[in-house]
Amino acid sequence: MHTLVGWHVEMEFQEEGDRTRAAAMVRLTDGTEFRAHGTANRHPSDPDQLRVGEEIAGARALMDLASQLLQKAHTEIDEVSGRTSHTIR
Fold first, then answer.
1. Which helix (H) or strand (E) holds 24?
2. What's the predicted TM-score (pTM) here?
3. Strand partners, 20
4. Cα-based angle 68, 74, 80 (whole degrees, multiple of 5)
5. Phi and psi torsions of 38, nearest 5°
6. How many CA atoms lie within 13 A of 86 on its CB side?
7. Per-residue model confidence as pLDDT tens for the chain (89 residues)
8. CB 72 within 8 A of CB 32
9. Are the CB atoms for 43 and 36 separated by under 8 Å?
């Protein structure tokens, strides 16, 4: 059987001075939504490169989303199997 499923991740960035904040959201096909955040701080001696702050903050938000998705999956495995699964990190 071939099933095609798509997720869309929304990312927003806010920059204030030397700090970049990222907010990420994904909505799964079962209607579950996960939201996550990440931050990056530019050292005062570093050049002003907004894209780099977005990449770091965005990556941290996506890592948070990944952790939440793994937890959800393992909870579902545990409910069906009746035993405790172990997250691979």
1. strand 19-27
2. 0.83
3. 15, 40
4. 140
5. -150, 155
6. 1
7. 677 788 999 999 999 999 999 999 999 998 999 999 999 998 888 888 778 999 999 999 999 999 999 999 998 998 888 888 776 65
8. yes
9. no
